[in-house]
Amino acid sequence: MKKLLSILLVLLMACSMMVGCSKEPTVVNLKVWGAQEDQEMLAGMIEEFKAANADKEWNIELGVVGEPDAAKKYLEDPEAAADVFAFANDQLRDLVNAGGLYKVTRNTENFSDIYAPGTIDAASIDGTLYAYPMTADNGYFMYYNSDFFTADDVKDFDTMLDKAAAAGKKVFMDVSNGWYIASFFLGNGGTLSIGADGKQVCDFNNDKGVEAGEAIKAITAHAGFVTGDDSILIAGIQDGSIVAGVSGTWNAESISKAWGAAYAATKLPEYTTASGKVQMGSFAGYKLVGVNSQTKAPVEAMDLAAWLTNEANQVVRFEKRALGPANVNAANSDAVKANVALAALAQQSAYAVSQKDVLGSYWTPAEAFGVAMEGKDYSKSVQEQLNDMVAQIQQ
Amino acid sequence: MKQVNEKKKWTPRRARRLASSILGHGFLTVLSIVWLFPIAWLIMQSFRGEPGAFTKYFIPKTWTLDNYIRLFTETHLFNFPRWFMNTLIVAIFSCLITTILTLLTSYAFSRLRFKARKPMMNVILILGLFPGFMSMIAIYHILKSVGLDQSLVALVLVYSSGAMMGYYIAKGFFDTIPKSIDEAALIDGATKNQVFWHIIMPMSKPIVVYTILTSFIAPWVDFIFVSVIMKDNYNMYTVALGLYQMLTRENIQQYFTEFCAGAVLIAIPITLLFIKMQKYYVGGVTAGGAKG
Q: B53 and A231: CB-CB below 8 Å?
């Protein structure tokens, strides 16, 4: 026992001495963060980058941090964070406020040709570009079974619900989620913006917002409607009880497998308010690649970020992982247009709003409103519930 | 014969006893179903052949071992074998260190009388009232300044360094061993150290086993410290953090059944250790609790 203890102690000390190996000054050291499922693909892109820039010696590491967690992981320890990392564009404001991102100053010559204005705006704060756009597919749209619905049916939410209810089937949407439920308000002219004091400003409780709220109430109470999370959607599609549902590209593979030839998707439908039909809006999310402001090699890091998001690599992302390109040329290729889910997303993008101006305070109150609606809790009027929601969002 | 027949007669007392027995067992049955249901579900999911995260039926339609096989063969995306080994290494080392530290501390507090004894016990009690993850970020920065972040050594240190704070039960156990045994050995010329290793230890199997078990489990179930310390270093993840990667929005539909298989596999080393040491375990808890 004693021997073991002393061996252990020696081991521990040895380990602590071995750390901090010296680095060669001539080598460019960079670290890249990407999602776990992208690691292989990223490694390939980095190899090509090294080959294309053989004049320097590179030491590029890969770390696993997915886009949704990037800002959180970055802020935990900016110094240890990657030099080049991908993140979802709703984190842009947090990262810029924390001084975490280098302004993009290189490789932007033809940006106005290869990116839509909305895309560039999604990567900018107050007109300054902070990241390279990578994908433009973080949104949602309507999947439907084309054996059950015609292309005309899916233009109107009420038609869909009635037809589904008549056949004992369901139309799915996750209303207890701020991300999805916003589509009703945004479609009816609601806005989320940031006030002078840096707090969220939300007008979802004005007359238009109440109209949208009443519509949500009517839809959630409909016999042909079902709510829940992704697993409810997929299980329902697999057993045939769900014939249409609002979701995003990450479920495309499972849904297309389940429906086979009947797999179809389109923009979100119109819904009915007291003052007429309204096209549902949505959030459009982008994924961006930014450069850590604490990097020791900003020029090289920016070149690498630009390389990871160039047209060829956006095509690679689409081919290997079915991620929707942000680059206009890549997005307009025939292969991308033939992708059912991405085509539907592109249709919906005309009605989509960037998620950049949505702060963290929005999500929980919006979810609470959705939970009340799907729980059919009508103890307060819609106006009162929306007033509560907006008051909490603007806190 | 007659008497036996009389005994089987239906009396109010027998009826009452039977009713209470049925009620009691019924209650226990319900409780055990509630408790076993999630585990049974998890195990069934791990053998499910159909893909997807959620099915509306309880029993899988097709049974398969593929989830387990894929967990060990398709390692390019989720390197489960590597995570499993990481966790096993951390668990074994931190278990050894924790056990030794805890036993030494409890022995000192139980047998030795020194000035700072009471104050130290008080300090430990108060420190123990704060949740461990409160100091998480501080610990990370300290480890980083020493250059130990993102290493398994760091995890072993984190899990075992605060271990002696859990000395209470072991101390309670040592308090029940008569002091005269120590004194007899001391008179015969043994040192305090020898008394501990050669006399007290062999008598304290239950409590040693209890300490080993509790400290072995910690690394298998901890999530929060691993995620702070390992950050992006995927190859050093432990199973808890690694398996969680399977549950992201992009992966859950495809990997949920593998996740279940992984969760079942985690239970195996813990269960084996438990079965092996079970007979001591019960003794350990009750013996220590008597005077703890």
A: yes
Per the CB < 8 Å rule, is B54 touching A1? no
Residues A32 and A70: beta-carbon distance below 8 Å = no
Q: Do B61 and B75 fall into the same domain?
A: no
User: Which of chain B's residues have a Cβ under 8 Å away from the Cβ of A35?
Assistant: 248, 250
d(CA B224, CA A174): 29
Q: What's the mean pLDDT when you consider all of chain A?
A: 88
**A253 with B93: Cβ contact below 8 A:** no
CB of A384 within 8 Å of a chain B CB? The answer is: no
The complex's ipTM? Answer: 0.71
B18 and B110 fall within a common domain = no
Which domain covers residue B100, as residue numbers? Answer: 71-291
- pLDDT at residue A223, rounded to an integer: 93
* Residue A141: strand pairing partners: A247
Cross-chain residue pair B248–A66, CB shorter than 8 Å: yes
Is A175 within a domain? Answer: yes
Task: Determine the pLDDT at residue A54.
Answer: 87
pTM check: above 0.80 = no
Chain B interface includes A235 (CB < 8 A) = yes
One domain for residues A158 and A242: yes
| CA dist B209 → A95, B86, B164, B169 (Å) | 49, 23, 16, 12
- The residue segments making up the domain with residue A240 are 141-282+357-393
Q: How many CB atoms lie within 10 A of CB B52?
A: 20
Asked if A37's CB is within 8 angstroms of B140's CB, the reply is no
To the nearest whole Å, the CA of A5 is away from the closest chain B CA by 8
Closest CB from B100, B144, B248 relative to A80: B144
Instruction: List CB contacts of B126: < 8 A, sequence separation 6 or more.
Output: none
| Contact state of B53 with A230 under an 8 Å Cβ cutoff | yes
- Assess A226–B contact: CB distance below 8 Å, yes or no: no
- Domain shared by A190 and A240, yes or no: yes
